[in-house]
Amino acid sequence: MEEVKRLIENNKTWSERIRREQPDFFPTLEKQQAPTFLWIGCSDSRVPANEVVGVMPGEVFVHRNVANVVVHSDLNCLSVLQFAVEVLKVRHITVTGHYGCGGVKAALQNKQFGMIDNWLRHIKDVYSLNKGEIDALPTETERVDRLCELNVIQQVQNVCCTSIVQNAWHRGQFLAVHGWVYGLKDGLIKDLEVTKTSSEQLDAPYVYVKS
Fold first, then answer.
1. How far is CA 155 from the centre of its chain?
2. Which of 12, 132, 152, 174 is deepest in the core (most CB within 10 A)?
């Protein structure tokens, strides 16, 4: 139980420091939530959203799952997305993967890991579509890292193909969807430069006509 006690003590220390340095912080935070960003990231404990981009609580709305996957049948993710876009009016959505992702590495293998295999199937689909490029890379590390990038690119596409995001664009709401990969080795974010800001940037079969 010492591990749990340590977290409670850390929280107390953090709270006291914030109240001392910024007396209005908690009263202001309590009254409203107005983040500019929705972060869709991996559940990996080494990639905490706020710390990675250097912002305080209240500035980033966060959804995390294994390997930062966005699936059109995942009601959890879609609920977060809708709340962020339609209620909080975020201006930016970042799909943020990370190099060396365990979920992505597992998707490159033919082993069974349990129930998560069904989730990793989505990443296996990305691998299947890009198998020639990935298999041509000389090392496992390079193959995993490239699939991390390709997975992020696919998930950006998946975010943009939702009716939630396209309806926001139809309303004239500014919304940019970005693809990033975080480096565990150096703590730096790489922008994959796949940002989308309108349905005109999508393939025709995925575009919803404005009703």
1. 9
2. 152
What is the rounded distance in angstroms from the CA atom of residue 126 to the CA atom of residue 96? 16
CA distance 34 to 59: 7
What is the Cβ-side half-sphere exposure of residue 93, based on CA atoms within 13 angstroms? 36
Q: Catalytic positions, please?
A: 42, 44, 46, 98, 101
| Calpha distance 89→109 (Å, rounded) | 39
Segment among 24-28, 83-87, 147-151, 178-182 with least mean pLDDT:
24-28
Structure tokens at 143: 């193959």
Mean pLDDT of 124-149: 98
Task: Say what the pTM is.
Answer: 0.92
Between CA 96 and CA 99, with CA 98 as vertex, the angle to 5 degrees is 150
Residue 64 sits at φ, ψ, to 5 deg, of -135, 145
Task: Give yes or no for a contact between 93 and 168, defined as CB atoms under 8 angstroms apart.
Answer: no
Q: With 0-12 CB in 10 A as exposed, 13-18 as middle and 19+ as buried, what is 109?
A: exposed
